Amino acid sequence: MQKKKFSDYLQQYMMLIVLIVLLAAFGVICPIMTGRQFLSLANLMNILGQNAYLVITGIGITFIMLGGAMDLSTGYLLSTVGIVMALVDGGDSGGGSTIFIVTALVGILLSVVLSGFNGVMYAWLQVFPFVITLATQYMLNGATYLLSGGVSHTYKGLSSMFKFFGGANIPFFANSYIKSGVIVMIIMVIIGSLILNKTHFGRNVYALGSNPDAVALSGVSVAKMRIAVFALAGLFFGIAQIVNIGKIGSAANSMGIGAEFTVMAGAMLGGVKMGGGGGKMSNMVIGVLIIAVLNQGMNFLNINQYWQYVALGIVLLAAVTLDTLQTRAAINAAKKVSGTPPKAAQA
Amino acid sequence: MAETKTPALSLKDIRKVFPGVIALDGVSIDFYPGEVHALIGENGAGKSTFIKAITGAHAPDGGTITIDGETYTAMTPALSRKHGIECIYQEFNLIDVLSAAENICYGEKLGRFVNQKQMNKIAKEIFDDFGVDINPRTLVRDLTPGHMQIVEIAKAVSKKCKVLILDEPTAPLSLAEVEILFKIVNKLRDEGVAIIFISHRLDEIFELTDRVSILRDGVYITTLMTKETNRAELIKYMVGREMTQTFPSRNSEIGEVALEVENLTGNKVKNISFKAHKGEVLGVAGLVGAGRTEIMKVIYGAEKKQWGTIKINGKEVDIKSPKDALHKYGICLIPEDRKREGCFLMETISWNLVYNVLGDISKGGFVNKKKEKEIAKFYGDAMRIKAPNLDKTKVMTLSGGNQQKVVVGKAMATKSDIIIFDEPTRGIDVGAKYEIYELMNQMCEEGKCVIMVTSDMEELLGMSDRVVVFGERCLAGELTKDQFSQEKVLELASTGGATE
Question: The complex's ipTM?
Answer without folding.
Answer: 0.83
